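It is worth pausing here to work through a concrete case rather than discussing structure prediction in the abstract. The textbook approach is simple: state the sequence, then state the predicted structure, then interpret. We follow exactly that order.
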Amino acid sequence: NYHLLALPVYVALLTNYTGSTGFGEKFSQDIQGDPLKTPADEINQAADEAIKRFPFIDGTRQAAVGASYGGHLANWMEATTSRYKCVVAHAGLINLESQ
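Step two, the predicted structure:
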């Protein structure tokens, strides 16, 4: 779905945060015990780096988008930072008690 977000006036930043696949078993398992804070911090750091490297990116107009686990992570980011002007959480966990 991220292809739809990369229109001529938008920049889509996709990161391989801790817990992603493709970087070995240890990298994938390092998310255990910290499924939200570390990945969110890594995404925020990647956004900061992209804003620093590419002057055409407007750092005051950021959105966070995620589906499934990414939706859960987007909800976490909505609750823990005010940097994103828009958050789209598709099919993410919203209530751990009822899940």
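Step three, interpretation. The helical segments are 2-5, 25-29, 37-53, 69-80. The beta strands are 62-67, 84-90.
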